[in-house]
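User: For a teaching handout, I'd like to show students what a predicted protein-ligand complex looks like in C-alpha cell form. I'll give you the sequence and the SMILES for zinc ion. Please answer with just the structure.
Assistant: Understood, here is the input followed by the structure.
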Amino acid sequence: MPEIGPEGQRKLGGARVLVLGAGGLASAALYYLACAGVGMLGIADDDRIELSNLNRQILHNPQRIGTPKVFSAKDTIACFSPETLIVTYPRRVESVMEMLEMVRHFDAVIDCTDNFEARDLINQSCILARKPWVYGAVSGFEGQIMTIIPGRGPCYRCLYPSSPPSTSNSSAPGVIGVSAGFVGILQASEVIKHILGQGSLLVGRLLYADLLEMDFSELRVSMNPGCDYCGGHTEP
Ligand SMILES: [Zn+2]
C-alpha cells in the first residue's frame, strides 16, 4: 500500500500501543493492531472471563472462563502474531499517578473501558504525559469514537464536563458484538493512522454510529477555554 510501504511498516513495528480494557472493544482493536504489525502492545484489565462476555469479547473462549482476561488476550494474540511483544497489567488502575506510570511507556492509548471515571483518569494522564488517546463507547447497536491529542484538540473533559448518561460498554442493558467490534476497529484505525502520519483523525470530531439504522453522524467538538484539564490550550 502506498500509505504504508517499508517505511510505514517500520513505524508500526517500532510503535507501542496501550489498550486499557480487554473486553469487546479491546478484542477487535488488539486483533487489528497486532495484524498491522504494531511492535508492542500493552493490555490492562483486572477482570476474569465470564460466559456472558463471549458474544463480543472475541479474544476469549469458553475454555478460559474464570481466567484473567489479559492473559487470555495475550495467549490468543501470540497464536496469530507470535512476534508481537505483549505486556500485561492484570490490575485496576485507580490513580492518575498509577495511570501515568503505565502510559509513559507507550506512544498511544486506546480506551476500551466502560465508565466515565476510568476515561477521566485516562484523559488526565494522557494530557500530563502528552500522549494521544482514542475514546470509544458502545451501547446496544450504537457507538461513538473521538481521538484526543493533547494540545491539538479538545479533551474528553471538554466533551463531557461531567458524567454523561449513557457511555457504558457494560453488558447491561446490552451490547451486540458487532457494535463493539465496529468501534474497536475504528479505534485501531485511528491509532494506525496516527503512527503512520496519514489521513484525517477524529480530533475535535465525535463520530456517532447507529448500526441498527445505519446512520452515521459527526459532532464538531470545540475546546472549552474553561476546561479544568486542558484549559482549551492549543500549541503552535
Ligand atoms: Zn479539555
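For the handout, you might add this sentence: Residues 161 and 218 are 19 Å apart (CA to CA).
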